[in-house]
Design a protein that fits this description.
heterodimer, A: Rossmann fold, OB fold (Dihydrolipoamide Acetyltransferase, E2P), 2 domains, 5-stranded antiparallel β-sheet, B: mainly alpha, MetI-like fold, globular
């Protein structure tokens, strides 16, 4: 049980900066998910917490103790590796008891804890098997078991589900969530999969190019992304972006993009003056494009053609062609769109996002 | 090729290879039990008329053969253990750490293997003489273990490279220090490569003649290679004892190979990481 704090953390190899100016705190018992594309530095950050990477400058505090100089073995953290890293010459039981043996815990206590973990993870009947005799999902469970027998202060997960197939990944995601609810320990989880981030996290840390882009609850980062990167990274299908010029006509604000006019309500854009006649980027999630006739804002409707329709079962993705080189995606539950037909839509105006094209930061 | 013919030719090839490999051994055995010290005979039977083990008995009774075997075993085992322990740690450093001269160091090791053994005799002799270790076991052990080190390091480094780093990292997060991670995780996983290296060191030291010739001069300290050639005189060679000795000295190597074959299984790392 511990909080983890990062103060001005920096990591660089020779001339290349991997992580820059990392400052944030993960509270005790929080499930923090660090998410970002490949190469954003998230795994390096996790390995620095574990003590597997040196810290170039700055500090990491675990439970208010500076751990910069502590070897991995003294940090009381447990880590689940992306490739499981099970000891191939040891049985499941030996794998799980290795850390306790290193700590010279007595055999009765080891047996107790291993059995307890095996029960939680449904590994009891596999306890004497070798790792090569296990399936991918079982190996993953052993790797998690190896971490939980230690009762560590902090759990570190390095993309633990990335090697599993889609179905198993979903199952394990729920298992991990259950485990978190049961253990109530600080967990730091690294992934490139934003769905994992959204479903597991109590706090999401979004990273790109070695920098933190946004920290917040899943709903905060979804509803109010700080910048274009976060907006495009979180959410599937991804947010639509329309580049255009803000116009002020008939006492109303519009965004003119691809020869179409998109109404911008005043409440959604209080800083309007500064941006009138300037270029901005409007972001709108597919779910916030209204296609349902009964809900369309008739005054501010837009007309266009349907490009293609993707049927996904409970809903469909309607791709709307705004111009020859621009389509936007809308989700629909009405199933009445056909390709090349005319379509009328409006935006769910309270939920529009506006970004400055130069700074890429949110401006509303 | 026809499905039935293929295994036939394959087996034919293997059988011919086995005959070529075992024929000299069989001939040597038949010479060793042949009466009278004759190496050449018109008799081609494997067990000749009047066969006896008299040469074997004479070998043990009239020469220091047992002593030579003991010397060879002592030097060979010491060489193999020292060679493997030095190579296993050095190779680990080459495989895992980044340090100045790593690339050059490895290439230099390889380069040293390209120098013919004969060229090393004089420098080795001078070095051992300076260390005052002429005619000692220690001198032999140093000479042997050092000369087989480069090859052993390369073999082991190559094997360590295939072991995922995450295994040691997992061990370190689990509470082991670097040394514990090495001998609890890496070494047990490297048994196939360690066995190969051990066997290589063993056979090299066991069969070595040139270095022994210059370092050892007291017949009591001879290894079996020197001892056997002792039986080869200028005018007369005791072929019976010579061949009997040759047969006996294959036994330790044979036993070592048989014993270590179970460690030579590959794929020990299967199942540890994704794949």
């Amino acid at each position: 049980m511990a909080d983890v704090k990062f103060i001005n953390l920096k990591k660089s190899y020779d001339e290349t900066t991997i992580l820059d100016n990392i400052n944030f705190k993960i509270q005790d018992k929080e499930f923090a998910v660090i998410v970002g594309p490949s190469g954003c530095g998230k795994t390096t950050l996790l390995r620095m917490i574990a003590g597997l990477e040196n810290i170039t400058s700055g500090e990491i505090l675990i439970d208010n103790t500076k751990v910069n100089e502590l070897p991995p073995s003294k940090r009381e953290v447990a880590m689940v590796f992306q490739d499981y890293a099970l000891y191939p010459h040891m049985t499941v039981k030996e794998n799980m008891s290795f850390a306790l043996k290193m700590k010279k815990v007595n055999q009765d206590e080891i047996d107790k804890r291993v059995n307890e973990a095996a029960n939680i993870l449904q590994l009891s009947n596999l306890i004497s098997r070798m790792p090569k005799q296990l399936s991918g999902g079982q190996r993953q469970r052993v790797a998690i078991g190896r971490a939980i027998v230690r009762h560590p202060k902090v759990f570190l997960f390095d993309e633990p589900l990335s090697n599993l197939d889609a179905k198993l990944r979903e199952e394990m995601r729920i298992e991990i969530l259950k485990l978190y609810q049961k253990l109530q320990t600080t967990m730091i989880y690294v992934t490139h999969d934003q769905i994992e981030a959204m479903t597991l996290a109590s706090k999401v840390i979004i990273m790109n190019k070695g920098k933190i882009q946004q920290i917040g609850t899943p709903i905060e980062v979804y509803k109010k992304p700080n910048n274009l990167f976060v907006a495009s990274f979180i959410g599937t299908p991804t947010m639509n972006f329309l580049k255009g010029i803000i116009l002020f006509e008939n006492q109303k604000l519009y965004l003119k993009s691809h020869d179409k006019f998109f109404f911008i309500p005043n409440f959604a854009f209080p800083l309007s003056d500064k941006y009138i006649n300037k270029e901005v980027i409007l972001g709108i999630r597919p779910d916030d494009i209204i296609l349902d006739d009964s809900k369309i804002d008739v005054e501010n409707k837009v007309e266009a053609n349907v490009d293609v329709v993707e049927l996904l079962g409970p809903r469909e993705n309607v791709h709307i062609r705004l111009s020859s080189d621009k389509t936007i995606c809308a989700t629909s539950h009405s199933f009445n769109s056909t390709p090349n037909s005319k379509i009328i839509f409006s935006l769910n105006y309270p939920n529009i996002h506006l970004f400055d094209p130069k700074t890429q930061e949110r401006i509303n | 090729m026809n499905k039935k013919l293929k295994p036939f030719f394959l087996h034919l090839f293997i059988i011919i290879a086995v005959i070529i490999a075992t024929y000299p051994l069989i001939r040597i055995f038949s010479v060793s039990i042949r009466p009278g010290d004759r190496i050449i005979s018109t008799d081609l039977s494997i067990i000749p008329d009047g066969a006896s083990f008299i040469s074997y008995i004479k070998l043990f009774k009239e020469t220091y053969f047992l002593r030579w075997i003991f010397n060879s075993l002592l030097i060979t085992f010491a060489t193999s253990f020292i060679g493997v322990s030095l190579a296993s740690t050095a190779a680990y450093a080459f495989s895992r750490y980044r340090f100045v001269g790593k690339k050059w160091g490895l290439q230099l090791l390889l380069l040293s293997q390209m120098i013919p053994a004969g060229m090393l005799i004089l420098p080795l002799y001078l070095m051992i003489m300076k260390l005052n270790l002429i005619n000692t076991y220690l001198g032999m052990v140093i000479a042997y273990s050092v000369s087989s080190l480069p090859f052993s390091i390369w073999i082991l480094k190559g094997y360590y490279d295939t072991i995922p780093h995450s295994l040691e990292e997992a061990a370190m997060v689990d509470g082991a220090n670097e040394l514990q991670a090495f001998y609890r995780i890496i070494l047990p996983l490297s048994t196939p490569a360690l066995s190969i290296t051990f066997l290589f060191n063993f056979t090299t030291a066991w069969n070595e003649y040139l270095v022994a010739r210059v370092v050892l001069y007291n017949p009591q300290n001879y290894t079996w290679t020197l001892g056997l050639f002792e039986l080869q005189g200028q005018f007369i060679t005791q072929w019976g004892m010579f061949t009997a000795g040759s047969i006996i000295i294959t036994i330790p190597v044979l036993l070592i190979f048989l014993y270590s074959s179970k460690w030579l299984v590959s794929g020990l790392t299967l199942g540890s990481v994704k794949g």
